[in-house]
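Troubleshooting entry. The earlier prediction with zinc ion gave an output that would not parse, so I re-checked the input for stray whitespace and re-submitted. Clean input:
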Amino acid sequence: MVKRACKICKRIIDKTTCPVCQVNETTTSFQGVVLILDTESAIAKKLGITAPGKYAIRV
Ligand SMILES: [Zn+2]
């Protein structure tokens, strides 16, 4: 299955619509995947991530 990334929240998903943002703003062209477990970590803050999960570094 092709992985997609939401252009708004950067979450990695396998649908064309982001379940969090409820918009059809996803892309298959993203770079890098980061697994965020701790939303207080520096990388999470840099990416503006507020919930644990898999995210694209660049969308
Ligand atoms: Zn989203």
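This one parsed fine. The chain has a mean pLDDT of 94.
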